[in-house]
Amino acid sequence: MNNHNSSHEVIVSGIHLDLTPSMKVYVQEKLERLFRHELRIVRIRVELECDPKQAPEQKFTAKGHVEIQGPDRYASVVADDCYKSVDLLVDKLDRMLGRRADEKHDKRKHPHPVEWTDVDLPKVI
Fold this sequence. Notes:
Elements: E1 9-15, H1 21-31, E2 43-50, E3 60-67, E4 73-79, H2 82-109
Helix pairs in contact: 1-2
């Protein structure tokens, strides 16, 4: 990971799947996209699961959990290839964080007016 993001914790684990060092590096490189929306991500957990009993097109499942200030974000995708499931998961998390950033930006730029009709405010002298 880059030096400016070294404080972020990225956890990659495999369920019924032996993770190679190259696969861990691949996942970490793909997750770098998420930091352009939110730099204060505390932790990202990715679980890659292989279920040989499932149909071939649903063999690999990738689950992601992004811990940030406010509600955490969860996503899960199913694919026929492990690398494809990682790509789809990162795309989904990227869209979720992008929407969150847009909503946060809109609230800041377009505040809603507040009406004070029922409140008796003290008069300024």
